[in-house]
Amino acid sequence: MALHNGDRHLTERITTENSFRRVDARGIYYRDLNAILKNLNDKGVKKIELLNVCGQRYIGTNLDGNPEIKIHGIPGNDLGAFMKGPSLIVYGNAQDGCGNTMDDGRIVIHGDAGDIVGHSMRGGKIFVRGDVGYRVGIHMKEYGEKKPILVVGGTAQDFLGEYMAGGILVVLGLTLKDGEEHKARFVGTGMHGGKMYIHGKVTHLGREVEIAGIEDSDRRLLHSIISEYCNYFDFDTSEVMTHDFAKVIPITKRPYGKLYAH
Q1: Is residue 23 part of a domain?
Q2: Inter-residue contact 197 to 247 (CB < 8 Å)
Q3: Is 12 in a helix, a strand, or coil?
Q4: For the chain, which has fewer Cβ within 10 Å, the N-terminal or C-terminal residue?
């Protein structure tokens, strides 16, 4: 959907502040809001701020280039789906499907997120300050130099990393109380690629995964990822790095091979 200059009820929502554009999204239909974003991106605007966002879907979907889009409010489902480079920074919670089939770019959420975060994610990075819902990281994959990274600051629900085929999923457990365990069941069910690093006790693993020892290469990788997370959310990297992590890896690359072929 194109945004036409004569469409005053939309264009009057856009104001210019120094080097960025500010958009009042209150009451704007999601298709119209995404048309505004595409129009600004096509014009080469590098900094965009969305105010009063309330449930609009598909924000940032299929956008390319490298604009930075700050979102104030709660975006709807499929934030950043199929995204190819922009940075989305959410000052609040997010709903389901963040980063669905994301190809590149960055999503930073200063709150909690819903189910299937990172669904089929194949590149880029997602950082969630708090907790997430069910089936997070499902079907994450990697190809060549593309290796997606998904970091959850708190805890997750059932089927974390389900059918994961590649990439790196980190769960820091920072919202757990002393002695509290992760309640997620079926962690890594069907997993056949990639790695998960989890701080805190995992109560229920899928049959297709196992716990492996942490090596020096894992610690270097974790330090790099955790440093970036802490930089966004003002945590102390050295303190988070003192935590013990379990590395969850698949037992086989073909967990269901015998069900479909001899």
Answers
A1: no
A2: yes
A3: coil
A4: C
Helix-strand-coil split of the chain, %, nearest 5: 15, 30, 55
Domain membership of residue 253 as a residue range: 112-260
The domain tally of the chain equals: 1
Q: Which residues contact 181 (CB under 8 A, 6 or more apart)?
A: 200, 201, 202, 203
Residue 83 maps to a domain: no
Determine contact, residues 21/49, Cβ cutoff 8 Å.
yes
By the 10 Å C-beta count (0-12 exposed, 13-18 middle, 19+ buried), 55 is classed as: exposed
Asked, for residue 69, whether it belongs to a domain, the answer is no
Adjacency order of strands within the sheet including 246-250? 14-17, 20-24, 47-54, 68-74, 84-91, 104-109, 125-128, 149-152, 165-171, 193-198, 246-250, 209-212
Predicted confidence band of residue 261 (pLDDT cuts 50, 70, 90): low
Give the pair of three-digit tokens for residue 24: 């009042």
**Domain CATH code at residue 137:** 2.160.20.60
Domain membership flag for residue 97 = no
Q: Determine contact, residues 153/140, Cβ cutoff 8 Å.
A: no
Relative to beta strand 246-250, strand 193-198 is antiparallel
Question: pTM of this prediction?
Answer: 0.92
At 145-159, the pLDDT tens digits run 899 999 999 999 999
